[in-house]
Each structure stands twice: as C-alpha cells, then as structure tokens.
Hints:
Number of domains: 1
Strand content: 15-25%
CATH architecture: 3-Layer(aba) Sandwich
Number of helices: 5
Number of strands: 7
Radius of gyration: 16 Å
Strand order of the largest sheet: 3-2-1-4-5-7-6
CATH topology: Rossmann fold
Helix content: 10-25%
Structural class: alpha/beta
Shape: globular
Distance between the termini: 25 Å
Amino acid sequence: MKPENDELSTEDHLKAQYMYWWRQWKRERRFKNSHYEYFFTEYFDIPKSFYEDRKVLDIGCGPRGSLEWMPDTASAVGLDPLAKEYARFGISKHKAMYVDAPAEKIPFPAESFDCVSAFNSLDFVRSVEDSVGEIKRILKAGGFFLLIVEINHKPRADAPHTISASDVESFGFEVLECRTFRKLEEKGCYHSILDEGNLAHNDGSAEMWLAAKLRKKAS
C-alpha cells in the first residue's frame, strides 16, 4: 500500500469528495439506492434475514441511503466525515442514523457491530491502516467486513491511496471471498463487478475493482 498523498490537505480532500456528490445531485436530483440491497445480500451470499436485529456500519456511506433497505429491527449507521453537509441532500428522511466522523476515529465501543461495509470508500480515507484498525476494533468476532474497492490506481485528489489485492489480504481478516474485475470504461464499480464475465486475473498493474467478503478472526 503506497503512502497517502501528503500534499493534499484534509480540507481539499473532503472538498473533492463533496463536489463529486454535488455534481451527482445536480444530475440526478433524487438519489437512487435500490441497488444496495443486492450487494449487501445476494452478491456476498448473505441472506437478508441475517441482518434482522443486527448492527451494521457503512463507512464512507455518502448521501444515497445505502442502508435504507435494511429490516426495521436492524440498527443501521452511516459513517461519513461529510454527513452534516449531506443534510442538504435529504438524508434526514432516511431511517439510518448518520454519524459525522472519519473512519480513522469511529466513535463507537469495541465489538459494537455485526457487519461493517466499505463500498468504494476505503481508498478515500486519510489513513487506510488506521481505518482498518478501527474496523477490526468495532467489529464483533466472527463479524463480516464487506469491501468493494478500486485497486492499483494512482493517487487522486479524492482517493489518495493506491491499494493492492495483497494489501487486502494483509489486513488481518479471514478472507472468505476475494474477486477482481476489469475496470469498465465509463462504468462505475457496481456495473463492473456485476458481470461474472468481467472477472480477471490481477497482475498488480492494471486498475481494477476488488470485491471481498472478510471475517474478523476470534481473538
């Protein structure tokens, strides 16, 4: 895992992320979120019933409403350092609770969550190492960490880290599933990882998408 871009200030980093969502909002006017249920359930072979009475944290959740599909008995938390700014996009109407905090300092006690997700967000944090440490801390033993991340890309203003598949394997979780997909031109992560025909060997150089189902090991 290559070092983060130290020349990029936290303010510039967050501004780049916010401007992305502002452009999306101007284009869509109403954020869609129906696709998330599939990726939290069938895609990673987890029945929807698993989430009943569970606590789930989505890191870098954005303002779409990634956890709105969850059963009413579940506890859904979206974590994002721009959560307060997302109020203008209507997140107050969502049933999930939003917490304005970075992934490096998650404001919850140890072993609080049954499942943590980071869908297209882990390379956006300020410190991948600190964020992964926090994920392991707040996840219960045996809990899932669902990860979708772009790998092998050069640092950008919004995503200042270059993450590799070997980095993911070294995070210290039990790897239940890990797949890599070609990055489709003009297509986002979800379109790219949906097509099994798009599965590809990772040679460590080409920009790709990685989808992994990880589990916290018992201490």
